């Protein structure tokens, strides 16, 4: 049987400065073999993605969260697209009343929740630049980002207010106002006043917007949508500038990619969000869900109790990093150890049987309905019962874990590869293709990919197999590092973004991450 190809080779290898071949062939998605598909003329900004869906899917559930009642977490409650849109307009008007002008930078600091998204969309409504704040790489990161991005306003979670107003966070003194996702204590209000910062609870800011309504000022496609700071291997965080047209192109590319498959995404799909919204993967997945009029439910804040959110929300889509899926596999295997030896043997036999048919090319749901009925539906039930798409990013998932999930969870399991600079996944795996096991798939619709030689590490893009540094170009790349033209020039050479990751191209055109480029002294 002929080898199935998943990418198109559109250019031959290029010659380096020394006259020797140093760059391998250029690869594209098969949907972009001859040229990139046309973009959607009606959706050119992040604001278009949300506002058009708010009109089209006004009554659909959009954002869900769990309220705490008497110290215990309750069921999910929801806001519709229309309710979120109305709230966005009020927060947008309040920002205008507070003095926010187009291009002004607005920080958002806190865990995933509906207020995070409302603040983000309010920024888009007024052509403001959303700048996520995070402290996962140390407390000084927030101080640095506020100063470097010249942030004027911050929306902040109640748990983070104390850190923001900490005397060590000297850059906070430049802020004009902070808005808490919930409410502030009297002590926090006094501290903000001493620093010359106006402070508001969420309800107070909504009331300000209601009393001072103003027309929206939507962005143009070439305006900055967000500056996402990402930690480098050393030094201060880098501000990755992402334009509105970049976000729109990413979502359009996902639309075209998903249309290839039998199982289509619908407004009934539900995504469980727990990866940080301050990072690009979760942000882009949510943008895509909003485009489809689907629902996003947020975890209640405790990753150790994520299974409780899974059982309550019953999501159809779940995205995570390898550690999350390793824990899921460990949990399932622990449950298996509690079964009798005979039942464990039956489970193992059913596993091998279904895997065998999947390796022969059968789709996951048709490989062995009997095995699903007898064993694997119970695994699916532990993940909420409705899961049909699992996405892994952030790092490579081990082949063992990926295979286990593909067989047992009765859902599509795919890996992708990308960076903040590529606005999320630059490559994506295909569902039901077992030959992609252990790889990160083929180039995304609006991206091109090639490998560059790394002679000091022995990687040759024209070798067998082709290996080298992964380089990207296309419509979903960032426009540069904020206030750092030197670093931008260093990473963008001849129109190609050099990722620093080492990849290997397999014969069917998919890529496998095998190493990280190291600076040799």
TrEMBL record:
Stretches of the chain forming a coiled coil according to its record: none
Highest taxon in the source lineage: Eukaryota
GO BP, sorted A to Z: cutin biosynthetic process; wax biosynthetic process
GO cellular component entries: endoplasmic reticulum; membrane
InterPro entries associated with the record: AMP-binding_CS, AMP-dep_synth/lig_dom, ANL_N_sf
A GO molecular-function annotation: long-chain fatty acid-CoA ligase activity
Pfam family, one: AMP-binding
Domain AMP-dependent synthetase/ligase stretches: 69-482
Protein name: AMP-dependent synthetase/ligase domain-containing protein
Organism listed in the record: Salix udensis
